[in-house]
Design goal:
This protein has 1019 residues and is mainly alpha-helical. It has 50 helices and 8 strands. The N and C termini lie far apart (105 Å).
Length: 1019
């Protein structure tokens, strides 16, 4: 028999004219694509989504664009999604596109892979061996995605690359996730990404629908929707197909029946040219699509039916084996189908596909049930007889699909299980889950003796091995559920994972009595409950602890203890959490589970720091970081960077925290650990904010929000930093928006102090900025109710300082008097529960004490000087500037030290200007104006004392009298009665006062008057 490639090449040029040689319409859409090509050539990556109903002309538009791209010297890589992807063939379009790039740029692609061929072989097996089983975690897929993006960026560094992914409506979950990651993170290279999808297939529950909604929010992506042709455009299309002016009646009939769908126009014209009156065709779309197929010779129809059931593309050798025709008969049938423009030879010359997927669907739907299962059986038998008929990485998955649709459970189950292992090795966890669920469906349909012959396919994480010889031990249904639960969690299907765990636990509560496996499932449930925001996971952890009590040490036992210690680390890092972490280390070491041991050591070190053993805890974490890095356990190494950078910030060592975080992000990025990088970047943004590097903090927070990390909580922390920053810069409304989104990301059913306390602080800051003192007090009372667990001083001191500063700023306001004593007592109660383990928290403690004194009218310049002295050695420029402002105010009130006050105000003003801290800058400027001091940098003598009756804001003596009454809460009528003026005159005075002070209302005027001592003796 001849080589299939030669046959495809021979038939590739055979075509019946039904496609218009003239490109009709779409001028605006083609212009958008070519403009994107130009921008990409200039070095700005581009991404476009093309949507439209089936047959509307998406493929033709892309073909025209690719012709233009090729003419301009671009390298084109085309990949199409296949329906088989829904059954577990992951990354199909990316694999095809990378294969095309490898053919065009073999040396360049090898260089771009840069030693990561093994990892990238999970996408393109031709690059090498993807390696054996590696520990599965949420970052393994992200690492593959990061390497793929980097590969494309390197290939597009010196040339323009056009990557086209067609038929996204058939995309498998892994393809959708990779595309999302690519479009979110692609920032460099001369590359255009074009993806198409069938819009009429995107129903409400279609998995592509949320992806499209998410991509719509990215400003870097342009979406193009193709509409149907107008009557004029249909006329032009018919003219091109017929190579002559069409009859007006034909135009009207075709336009009416096609409704402007370009593909239907072609089919109707073919029917008309064959002598069949257009109006005689069935109204059924399927019948319309089958008209040309049914006009083929019987042999060609038979081959078309075989191709339709083989998948989106069928290799020539496989087709020949299934068709069971002589080579001449097969070629003749293919020639007829290709000549009628039903089938096309695929671009790489290895097989055939339908020219339009609608026709393939119609032909497949037209098969009889017995005929469909018989064809699938023949495909499976042919592939088993000669595995070389398809690409190696597709073989098992396609075989599993064929046996499944052949309705042969006994053959399908083992093949489906093998396919699930292969997809897991490619980090395609969504497809692994799909296959495992199919195995679960088949399980009871398979004879017991066949199930007994199956061997354990894998062990999920720390799921307990049977302890027996794997060569003789049978796979159990529970083992299958464990694999499926982990696959569901790793693919982001946490709800499904929880359902699978519940199913397993019901089995274990019934006939099965296996406490170790039950403990493993309860530990999984604990993690899922927290991730889903349905609880804190403690009841599940407690249940798992009860189950392993008294059992011999095992990896499961260590995992349960690590879970308990981790729970305590986040929620109550006290003696119990410390003991659990120490036991976890001991158990893991005893059973020689070093990855679990190192993970436990990181948790242990973190709890030790919170408990006060700072140097011991830091040393433990440093050792774990070095060991995990040396062993190549990069997920654990990244976690060590997360916890170390957080611990350094808690100790006020923000510069060291930044150094560790930067190194951690580099490690995580190089290994593709996207989620880990997100956690570290959140810590980095926080430390940069503390150090006064507000611009970079904002950049890191926004970068994190764009990163595509699957965990939501790092994004919540990034939003909190943006909320703090907005408040510092005088934008409380924007801060409130960030807070709403942050709370949404954190969830409400698992209150963890490291999230709830800084959120409460930000809410207090927004309330204070908007003058809502009652809300400030309410928030502080709610926080005091739950208290400050060990290690949360880093959140507690800023929170209490924000609240007490609001009380001090409102001193003298009648509306604030009621409840003030209780609020200040609450502040004192909170302070007693906060640790002071580092100099920065000593500075905060002093500042809180003096703000308490200011709120009670007993502040002194001497004590404010101590606050300033405490902050001066620290890298806390914003807090230092605030303390200098307060010290200057106290000095001016006490009198006699105007030069010293001026120097403090100038320093505070310079910091506020540099940071963009508008409220602080305005407070400094207002105080300087009140004291008649110049903030100009040049050295100036202090201004002479003010003349009696004058004010730094230009208030007249009468206006000062009115302001005093406004601050006392008087209405215009009451002011008029007390000052013996008319209410209208009082109103004019109030308006003038508001204008001179630059405030919007009476409350702000009163607060400003008290804060700047406008009602006291001149400064």
């Amino acid at each position: 028999m001849s080589d299939g490639t030669e046959v495809c090449a021979m038939l590739g040029a055979v075509e019946t004219r039904s496609v218009s040689p003239v490109f009709v319409g779409r001028a605006g859409e083609l212009t958008a694509l070519t403009e994107a090509l130009s921008r990409a050539t200039a070095g700005e990556p581009q991404a476009l989504l093309i949507g439209g109903e089936a047959g509307v002309g998406k493929t033709r538009l892309i073909e025209e664009f690719l012709d233009t791209a090729c003419d301009r010297g671009a390298v084109v890589a085309l990949g199409g999604c296949v329906e088989l992807g829904a059954d577990g063939l992951p990354f199909a379009p990316f694999a095809a596109a990378l294969r095309a790039l490898r053919r065009r740029l073999p040396e360049e692609l090898t260089a771009a892979a840069d030693g990561h061929e093994g990892e990238l072989a999970r996408l393109l097996p031709e690059l090498g061996d993807p390696g054996s089983h590696e520990p599965s975690d949420e970052d393994s897929t992200a690492r593959l995605f990061e390497l793929t993006v980097r590969l494309l960026e390197r290939l597009a560094a010196d040339r323009t690359v056009v990557l086209v992914l067609e038929d996204l409506h058939w995309a498998d979950a892994s393809t959708r996730h990779l595309l999302t990651y690519l479009l979110r993170t692609l920032r460099r290279g001369r590359i255009v990404v074009v993806a198409s999808y069938r819009a009429d297939d995107i129903h409400r529950r279609h998995p592509l629908r949320p992806l499209l909604a998410e991509l719509d929010r990215l400003r870097t992506i342009r979406r193009i929707e193709l509409s149907r042709f107008t009557r004029t455009e249909v006329h032009r299309q018919l003219t091109g197909i017929l190579a002559a002016e069409p009859d007006p009646a034909l135009v009207e009939e075709v336009f009416a029946r096609s409704d402007g769908n370009a593909f239907f126009v072609e089919e109707l014209v073919v029917s008309h040219e064959a002598g069949c009156a257009v109006g005689q065709l069935s109204d059924s779309l399927r019948d319309l699509l089958l008209v040309r197929v049914e006009a083929l010779p019987e042999g060609a129809q038979r081959v078309a039916r075989i191709v339709a059931e083989g998948g989106s593309t069928v290799e020539y050798g496989l087709l020949a084996a299934v068709a069971r025709l002589s080579e001449d008969e097969l070629i003749e049938a293919l020639r007829a189908a290709v000549g009628a423009n039903i089938l096309l030879a695929v671009p790489d010359g290895d097989g055939y596909r339908f020219r339009h997927s609608l026709v393939r669907e119609a032909v497949s739907d037209d098969l009889l049930p017995g005929e469909r299962s018989r064809l699938n059986r023949r495909y499976a038998e042919a592939l088993e007889a000669d595995p070389g008929l398809v690409r190696p990485h597709e073989r098992t998955t396609r075989l599993a699909t064929y046996w499944y649709h052949a309705h042969d459970p006994e053959k399908a189950l083992p093949t489906v299980l093998r396919a699930s292992v292969e997809t897991r090795k490619r980090h395609a966890y969504a497809e692994q889950l799909s296959l495992l669920e199919r195995a679960m469906e088949l399980w009871d349909k398979v004879p017991a003796e066949t199930r007994d012959s199956l061997r354990p396919i894998d062990y999920a994480d720390a799921y307990p091995a049977c302890g027996c010889d794997p060569e003789t031990t049978s796979l159990r249904y529970l083992d299958l559920l464990a694999e499926a639960a982990v696959a569901a969690r790793l693919s982001g299907e946490r709800e499904r994972a929880a359902k699978i765990c519940k199913m397993a636990l019901r089995i274990l509560d019934g006939d099965e009595n296996d406490p170790l496996r039950a403990a493993w499932f309860w530990t999984e449930m604990a993690r899922l409950q927290s991730n889903l925001g349905k609880g804190d996971g403690w009841p599940e952890i407690a249940r798992a602890q009860e189950l392993v009590k008294g059992l011999p040490p095992s990896a499961v036992h260590a995992t349960v203890l690590v879970g308990a210690a981790g729970w305590g680390m986040l929620r109550n890092p006290g003696p119990e959490a410390l003991a659990a972490a120490e036991r976890a280390v001991e158990y893991a070491r005893f059973v020689k589970a070093e990855p679990i041991e190192l993970n436990a050591r990181i948790t242990l070190g973190t709890i030790m720091v919170s408990a006060g053993d700072i140097e011991g805890g830091l040393a433990t974490m440093h050792e774990a970081r070095e060991r995990t890095t040396a062993l190549g356990q990069f997920h654990e190494a990244a976690r060590a960077h997360v916890n170390l950078s957080s611990a350094m910030e808690a100790l006020g060592r923000s510069a060291e925290a930044v150094e560790i975080a930067v190194a951690g992000i580099e490690l995580a990025r190089s290994r593709g650990l996207v989620d880990s990088a997100g956690w570290i970047r959140a810590n980095l943004a926080e430390s940069l904010l503390s150090l006064g590097d507000w611009g970079r903090s904002k950049e890191e927070a926004e970068l994190l929000l764009r990163s595509g990390a699957s965990s939501t909580k790092p994004g919540g922390t990034a939003l909190l930093q943006l909320a703090h920053l907005a408040t510092f810069r005088g934008e409380p409304a924007r801060a409130a928006e960030h807070l709403v989104e942050a709370r949404s990301r954190y969830g409400a059913r698992d209150p963890i102090p490291q999230y709830t306390l800084p959120t409460a602080q930000a809410e207090i800051a927004v309330a204070a900025a908007e003058g809502r003192l009652a809300d400030v007090r309410e928030q502080l009372a709610a926080v005091a109710e739950t208290g400050f667990p060990p290690g949360t001083h880093r959140y507690g001191w800023p929170l209490v300082l924000t609240a007490v500063t609001a009380e001090a700023d409102s001193r003298g306001l009648p509306a604030a008097d009621e409840g003030r004593a209780g609020a200040l007592a609450l502040v004192r109660r909170c302070v007693r529960g906060l640790a002071i383990p580092a100099p920065v928290w000593e500075a905060y403690s002093r500042q809180v004490s003096e703000e308490l004194a200011r709120a009670e009218g007993r502040e002194t310049a001497a004590r404010w000087a101590e606050v300033v002295a405490a902050y001066e050695p620290l890298d806390r420029p914003y807090q230092l500037a605030r303390a200098r402002h307060r010290l200057a105010d106290a000095l001016l009130v006490e009198g006699g030290r105007r030069e010293e006050a001026l120097a403090l105000l100038r320093a505070a003003h310079a910091t506020a200007v540099a940071l963009g801290a508008r409220p602080l800058r305005e407070d400094v400027e207002l105080l300087a104006a009140r004291a008649r001091l110049s903030l100009a940098p040049e050295k100036q003598a202090a201004a002479p004392a003010e003349q009696p009756g004058e004010d730094g804001f230009g208030l007249t003596p009468r206006e000062q009298d009115v302001l005093r009454l406004v601050a006392a809460g008087r209405t215009n009528r009451q002011i008029a009665e007390e000052l013996f003026i008319s209410p209208k005159t009082a109103s004019v005075h109030v308006s003038n006062i508001l204008a001179k002070l630059g405030v919007a209302g009476r409350g702000e005027a009163a607060a400003l008057a008290h804060r700047l001592h406008l009602l006291d003796a001149p400064l």
